[in-house]
């Protein structure tokens, strides 16, 4: 999943929780409902002194941790990540893709469709999405696993 050469050690330094919980949650809802561009995020980046890649990573980790803790549904998380992908790609156009944001987008995207060899009753979210999200979050947190008690 980590195909840009970004290491877990690099990821660890990219998200430091600069956003207050209410601001972060507002952005997640807006991303899911309308999508967010880099222009949409510019004021927030300036207000909190965060680079766009840092903000996108922070939002993406919040989505992943909320999903793994059972506080956020797959559908909402997938919608948020779909709403952030334009900004994620824009950052990646001039630099490496922001990680773990891009990998988490790819992970949530895996639940949207069944594979030809899957039986009809297979839960693609449990089979494909959850293990990838767990792996990415563990790598991001240096192998410590996700924190269900995180400030969601």
Please describe what this structure looks like.
This protein is 62% helix and 0% strand. It is mostly helical and 152 residues long. It has one domain (8-140). Helix 2 crosses helix 5, helix 5 crosses helix 6 (101-109) and helix 6 (101-109) runs antiparallel to helix 7 (124-140). It is globular and about 50 Å long. The model is unreliable at 1-15 and 144-152 (pLDDT under 50).
From the spread of the alpha carbons, the general shape counts as: globular
Look at the helices and sheets and give the structural class.
mainly alpha
Helix content: 55-70%
Whole-number count of domains: 1
Query: Termini separation (Å)?
Result: 25 Å
Indicate the mean pLDDT.
84
The sequence of SSEs as H and E is HHHHHHH
Radius of gyration from CA coordinates: 15 Å
State the major sheet: none
- Regions with little confidence, pLDDT below 50 for 5+ residues: 1-15, 144-152
| Number of helical elements | 7
Q: Say how many strands there are.
A: 0
Give the DSSP E fraction (strand runs of 2 or more residues). under 5%
Oligomer: single chain
């Amino acid at each position: 999943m980590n195909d840009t050469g970004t290491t877990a050690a690099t990821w660890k330094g990219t998200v430091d929780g600069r956003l207050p919980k209410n601001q972060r949650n507002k952005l997640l809802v807006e991303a899911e409902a309308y999508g967010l561009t880099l222009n949409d995020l510019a004021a927030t980046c300036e207000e909190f002194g965060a680079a766009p890649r840092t903000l996108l990573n922070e939002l993406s980790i919040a989505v992943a941790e909320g999903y793994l803790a059972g506080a956020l549904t797959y559908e909402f998380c997938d919608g948020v990540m779909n709403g952030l992908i334009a900004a994620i790609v824009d950052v990646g156009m001039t630099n490496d893709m922001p990680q773990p944001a891009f990998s988490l987008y790819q992970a949530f995207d895996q639940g949207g469709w069944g594979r030809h060899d899957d039986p009809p009753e297979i839960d693609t979210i449990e089979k494909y999405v959850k293990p990838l999200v767990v792996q990415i979050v563990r790598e991001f947190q240096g192998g410590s696993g996700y924190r269900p008690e995180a400030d969601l």
